[in-house]
Every structure is written in structure tokens, then in C-alpha cells.
Amino acid sequence: MKKKREEGKLVITRIENNILSLLMNDDNEIEQIYCDGGRFESLVGNIYVGRVTNIIDNINGAFVEYASGRSGFMLLDDEPDPTFADINRDEGPIRCGDMLLVQITKDASKNKEPVLTTNITLTGKYIVLTTKNPGLHFSAKFRNKEKSAEILERYEQLGPKEYGFIIRTNAANAPLDSIFEEIDLYSQLWLTLRDCGYYKKKISQIYSAPKSYLASIRDGYDEKVHTIITDNNKIYKEISDYLTVYQPDDADKLQLYDNPYVSLDVLYSIRSQIEDVLSERVWLKSGGYLIIQPTEALISIDVNTGKYVSKRDAQREFLKINLEAAEEIARQIRLRNLSGIIVVDFINMKSAASRDLLLKAFEGYLKRDPQKTTLVDMTKLNLVEVTRKKERRPLYELMDI
Q1: First-to-final CA distance of the chain
Q2: Domain at 8-39+213-270: CATH code
Q3: What pLDDT is stored for residue 220 in this prediction?
Q4: What is the dihedral of CA 109, 111, 117, 123, to 10 degrees?
Q5: Do 390 and 340 contact (CB within 8 A), yes or no?
Q6: Of the four, 42, 129, 318, 361, which is 20 to 30 A from 112 by CA?
Q7: Which alpha helices (DSSP H) does 278-351 contain, by range?
Q8: Using CA of residue 127, residue 330, residue 377, residue 107, what is the dihedral sign?
Q9: pLDDT in tens, 243-273
Q10: Burial class of residue 312, CB neighbours in 10 A (0-12, 13-18, 19+)
Q11: Separation between Cα atoms, residue 208 and residue 222, nearest integer Å
């Protein structure tokens, strides 16, 4: 008899200076981690009225002061239709001294300023409002043709708008009313922010993006998570308020855990699981292991046999370990939020058929990642190249445990 699957859980708790949002599988193992607090506070998604302080003609870029003494960089090639804070500003290229609405798309790192854009986006559970692309668009992973036709037909009844919407994958099984309630909600939010920007004469912040533990509720897991549980009264109130406004259909999923004797940390062995995720070495059930090492230019992942393999069955054992490693590597990439260029050194195999089987399996595991992750190729040196889009800092830079 097939084992009945338990309901998925999103566990949100505070451990020391970190607020962790953890997607747990049926075995209470962590599958995805969001982190707030700790060593770094992300500004991604925040919206400001900023002033252009410098134009760099040779790279067609600009520096914009978005807070007192703090500037970000913006490529002007990507800014065809900015929203100027001065409602009477005539159309034309961005100039020094212009006041305009900007949003942070990438946090500062080392000697680099944060990256800014005038393409304001507001993300909901089912839709993303974008000021850059008017009209209705669909996520690349949205493959429900019947549903997309229904959404498009209803959207056309709203009439033309100066901004657009991207329908997210989450909307594939959502009621039409819920999708269009969100379109209306975020339309009103954008118009409020735009009007607020028109009357701002000084550099100022006009919108704060939701914290990671709120974004984790919004960004997916809709079919996986049936319970959102926290043991912190303040966080419970924040989540409740957020769900009431932005995701009322999910409000009944929220629970307050109030056992005074066993914390969520202890109940789910959170601290020990996090320590394993931050470790350089990851053991496989076969006895093999991974070595995961972030460097300046890329992430290096090395697969090792970890024990003696008989010469007679060596190639079969290598394939078995590599296949197990492929699934675990895909999981570790998600858990650690690794991004950029990732190079995997699997155990060398002589058979081309075995290498093809490994690459096909690895690509399938990577597709489970909600973040855009691409298997590029296997090089002549049998190194597998993977790229993953960066939106948040990796876990090892955030955690303070």
C-alpha cells in the first residue's frame, strides 16, 4: 500500500539573529531556506525616489543617489520609459539632476554599488506588475493553454493600461477571480506609489519589499504547502496582516505553535540541519561525498567515491554514485542558494552512454528548482557547467549561527 503523503509545511522561526523560513518535506528535512536578519539586510525590491548624480557616457550608465550618501548604478540602455518624479518633466533621455522612481534589483557586493532600474515590478502570488512591458504576458513555465486563453479574454475587457502584467506559474490552477483581484490590488498599489513619487521633492524611500519570510509564502509552494507555522507572536502577527491584505485565500493555513517545552528548532532539528547545509562536505548514502567550495569567480563542487571501489564493478559504481550525487547537488544548490557559474566535477566514466544518462538525470533534478537553473554542457575535461540566476545572497553570507 502506497504511503499517504503528509501535508507540506512552511516553518518560520527565529534562531538568534536570523528569521528562517523553511520548506519541509514529508521527512521533516529542509528543502528550501529563506533567511532574514543575521549579517545582511537585503534591499532588493525596495523603491525610492532618487536623483541622477552622474552620467557615464562611454558605458551609457548612470549613478543615482537613492538614500542620503548611498548611490546605485543603472544601465540606461535598459531604461526606455522612466517614471520621473516631476510630473511636468518633458519626455527625453535621463539627465543629471533628474528625480525618478528607481527599484533595487541587486544588492551591493564588496566594491560594487547596488543595481537599480526604473522598470518597477511588484510581485504577487499569481502576477507580477511591470511598468516596462504593457500588456499581458505569461511565465515561460506557464503551459496551461486553456487557462491562458481564459485569462487573456478577461484581461482584454479591462482596457489598455500604461503598465503590464506577467502571469506567474502559480496561477495555472488558481481561480480567475483570485487572479484578477490581485491584478486590481497591485494596480492600485502601483498608482499610489507613482502618485506619491510625483510629489516627492527629496530623495526618499516610498516602498519596502516584503521580508524573505513573507516572500517565501508568496513565491510558490502553493501545491506543496498546506500549513504555515511559526512560534513567534510578532512574526505571526506580521504574517497574518500580510495574508489578510495580499493572500486572503491562504489565511487559514497559518498556525501559531505555542508549546513551551519543545521549540520548533528542537522539534525539526533546525539548527543541526542548518549546520549541515553550511558544511563544506556533504555525505551521500552510498558512502561517497561532495565538497562544495565557493570561490571568487564560481562555485566548485567535487564528487568523490569516499571508499574503495572494486576494479571489477568500478564503472557501475561510478555511475551509481554520480547519479546519487546529481540529485543531492541539485538539492544543495537550492538549499544554499548558490548562483552564478557552478562547476561540477563528477567521477570520470568511460562510457558515453553513462555520461549521457547522468546529464539527462542531472538536468531533470535541476528543473525542480523554482529559480532559473541551466545545465550548460559537459566540457572535454568532463566538468559539468551549470548557471543559476542570482536574486538573493547565498546562505553562507547571510547566516549568523
Answers
A1: 42
A2: 3.30.420.60
A3: 58
A4: 10
A5: yes
A6: 129
A7: 314-336
A8: positive
A9: 999 999 889 999 999 998 999 999 999 999 9
A10: exposed
A11: 24
pLDDT at 190 (0 to 100)? 96
Residue 204: phi, psi to the nearest 5? -165, 155
91 contacts: CB under 8 Å, gap ≥ 6: none
CA 126 to chain CA mean position, Å? 15
HSE (CB half, 13 Å, CA atoms) of 101? 28
CB 322 within 8 A of CB 346: yes
Q: Nearest to residue 53, comparing CAs of 95, 1, 111? A: 95
DSSP three-state, residue 50 = strand
Cell of 54: 552622474
Residue 5 scores a pLDDT above 50? no
pTM of the model: 0.84
For residue 375, give the 3-state DSSP assignment: strand
349-378: per-residue pLDDT in tens? 888 999 999 999 999 999 888 888 999 999
Query: What grid cell was written down for 176?
Result: 480567475
3-class DSSP state for residue 284?
coil
| Residues 6 or more apart whose Cβ sits within 8 Å of residue 176 | 150, 151, 154
Q: Which three cell numbers stand for residue 358?
A: 547522468
Kindly report the average pLDDT of the chain as a whole number. Answer: 88
Quickly name the fold that domain 278-398 has. Answer: Aminopeptidase (3.40.630)
pLDDT band at 401 (very low <50, low <70, confident <90, very high): low
CATH number listed for the domain at residues 44-208: 2.40.50.140
Amino acid at 210: P
At 141 the pLDDT is 80
